[in-house]
Write the structure tokens for this entry.
Amino acid sequence: MKVNKTFYCLLIIIVTTIAYWNSFDVPFHFDDQHVIRDNPGIRDLSDLNRVFNSFPNRPVAQLTFALNYHFHELDVWGYHLVNLIIHIINALLVFWLVLQILNRLKGQKRISLQDPEILFVAFSTGLLFAVHPVQTQAVTYIVQRMASLATLFYLLAVNCFLKGRSLIQKRKFAWIWFVLSGLSGLLGLFTKQIVFTFPIMILMLEWILYDDIGTFLKKNKKKAIIVGIIFLLFLLILPAVYKLDFSQIFKTIPPEQGHTYTLTPYNYFLTQLRVHITYLRLIFLPINQHLDYDYPISESLFEWKVILSGLFLLTLFVLAIRYRKKYPVFSIGILWYFIASAVESSIIPIPNVIFEHRLYISMIGIVLFVLFILFKVLRNKLIVVMVIMVSLSAYLTHERNIIWNSEEKLWEESYILSPNKYRAINNFANYEISNNKYLNGYILYNRVKQINNTGIVHINLNQLYYDMGNIDNSYIINGDMDIKNNINRVRYFYKIGNKNKCKKLIKNIDYKKINFSDLRWLTLLTIELEMKELYNELKSYTQEFEKTHSDKFEILLYATKIDSSIEIKEDMIKLIKNKKIKAKYLYYLSRQSALEKDYETALNYIMDALELDNRPEFYHMRAAIFNNVGNYLYAALDYTSAFKLSGDPEFVKMRALCYERMGHEESAKNEWRYYKILTEEEGEKGELPKSALSVGEE
């Protein structure tokens, strides 16, 4: 049966979509949080300079995140859709790449495959690349769009070059393809710096596929000089634009970012020899995958694992060079792997020595030559083998995405597989604490202390003691008074209601040295504590509040408590993108209207607020409006909603008063009994609590 390219492309699209169908709800994880979720730099698409500077070395990737935020805000579905589209395009580009390579070799009579066979091998390579489970970290982990998008530009650049190279003798607009290749390479370079090796990859393919570099240079000296200059400029763009200091690139990295070792170019290189073996194992046997590997550092060339790994990799490299004419597909596959891995997995120290997403582009070479060999051996039987491999890979990808869909499973898995990696344990402990499993968190934090008794673990234990109210053990009271602990002291005394102590402590904090999140919290707190002078000082210090709609309007709402001149205006609603902030804004508009006794308008505003967010104070607000217009039944129903959401017995008390006003004496008595049980008090009925219409009530 004759199968055309379109059918194969559709099959790649369909199978890949099925494999990743359960990835669309995967939440933000790990670096997603500071690069995307908590990054104010991507929230205003009209300020491109700010978008690009939110991650200066990777502006193209940041632009895509800003576009996602513009259309989807923090709805992860849109981010995953874009990631999957990029991944599918990459699979199709792999398909095209292999077609061009094999067709060139066929034209030279260096391989014996026919056109349908070439088509099938190219399709198989693209499909296996797409559904292999090791790719999930580059696709499902949203922030690693940087790797997949850079790969898209890398593959497009290589494909365009090969297309132009095939047309150069025919003089059919080859230069257009070369221009597209260069532009794509530049875009990739500003997406992630792995594209820096693109010119080297082109030279390798030219060397193996055309094998006439010397002849070409002699016949086309001017063209060769122009191409050489372009390549040189490409290699110089990165250091020129980013003013890179090469002494900094190869500098020693002290213990940080989740590891306890010091990295130098020497021990990083030795470690990468072993890491490559792990990468190759993951391609052939993708088991025990996880996010945060605990990989031991090699300090000596004479470690037996280093020696064996180095000899194996050197053998592959030498064979690839030696047999490039006889076995060109093998040579291209092996050299592709090494060149694509060169930036992240050679001698440039990177704080994390191993991450699965670094295999995303390099594995293409291994998949290509393995499938080519399998086809040479199995021929038509390869179809059956491919069905098995693709089905198994798609299943493992689906299962891997289930892990990614749960923060608990993701960090528990890393904790189990990296039991001595303090970042993995610490992040799992953070998850346990966030889900009120304090004993589990405490045990895990103490495990972290045993591994690395410095830094973040003290802050986390400090926070745990703060949540417990255990000030005897807490660093809040007894620890060194660094900036973070000073802020935590403020949080602690705020929690126990000692606002005078808060005011004294705030005055001693150097707010110019704290992070944005803490600065925002302190600004809101100065409003609540009616420290108007300090509030104005903090607000004038940071421009972040004015550049992010959500923060700007939340502070505006709180600021009404100490600045009566601030007016909440209806026309500001359309500027607010965050649904929860918009709901709170509508709540304040409702309160403002109700204070003016415009209950109909107030009711409309609070109804709109409830459409956006389900908060107890919103039901309290609507109940107060119903109370004021005499609709006590509706008020009682809303007090019920407020009570169910908050557990505050005062809402039961308000409900009892509603029943009294309705003349439902038996219901009122039952409510008072229930209220007394909840409060464990025997006092007399109090007055009607302050209405939600009173200024400043939350």
